[in-house]
Amino acid sequence: MVVASLLKYPKKSHRKLVLLPKYSVRLAEFFGLMLGDGGINNSWQANITINAVKDKEYATFISKLCEGLFGISPAIYKRKGKQALIVSLASTTVVDFLVVNGIPRGNKLKGGLKIPSWILAKKSYRIACVRGLIDTDGCLFIHKHTVSGRVYKNIGLCFTSYSVELIFQVAAVFEECGISAHISKRGSNVYLYRAESVAKYLKVFGTSNERISSVYRKWRDARVV
Please, where are the H alpha helices in 143-222? Predict the structure, then answer.
């Protein structure tokens, strides 16, 4: 870890003392979170917005991840009138670090939303980043179909993004790991349709979000009705 310098600002203000981490699997997963549900809209704050109900436990994971990487604790608060939970990391130094290493500032789509080159350079980083993306902007879903009067429940995975480049990057990482992926015609979704593919995804990539693993357990325990 590298400790950031204490910088003096006008009017006697100064930056927080934070840690600047080296490239790692944990940092790659954090970048996945930021590329998914994260955003940088000013010079001093990086926010991750998640569902206040379904992702409540995940907020604790994100908080601990931030503490381990940067040495500071984020604020967590519910957006008024919305089912949204904000995990907010307030540090100009951290924001600068994230931007320099590939997180777009402002509108992510206009800024060129994609997996940064330092993550693409190492397979373990690619896997961790995609895990972060799926844990924020992805989901497992259970769909039913009927065969000879019997109702079966199938499971699938979907990742959504309006960045076509990011969609193709995620699909490429799936294929690299031997998982067959399908991109929607509009190019805004990557799907895993087969139960075997979902099981392999969870084995290879894993998940840090209870929302993801709970759906898989529900399907596994009641596959045929």
Answer: 164-176, 195-204, 210-221
pTM confidence score: 0.88
Dist. CA 186–CA 141, nearest whole Å: 20
Task: Please calculate the CA angle 7-73-8 and round it to the nearest 5 degrees.
Answer: 10
pLDDT above 70 (res 11): no
CB 116 within 8 A of CB 27: no
Q: Determine the CATH number of domain 2-110.
A: 3.10.28.10
pLDDT digits 0-9 by tens, 64-121: 999 999 999 999 999 887 889 999 999 999 999 999 999 999 999 888 999 999 999 9
- The CATH-assigned architecture of domain 136-221 is Roll (3.10)
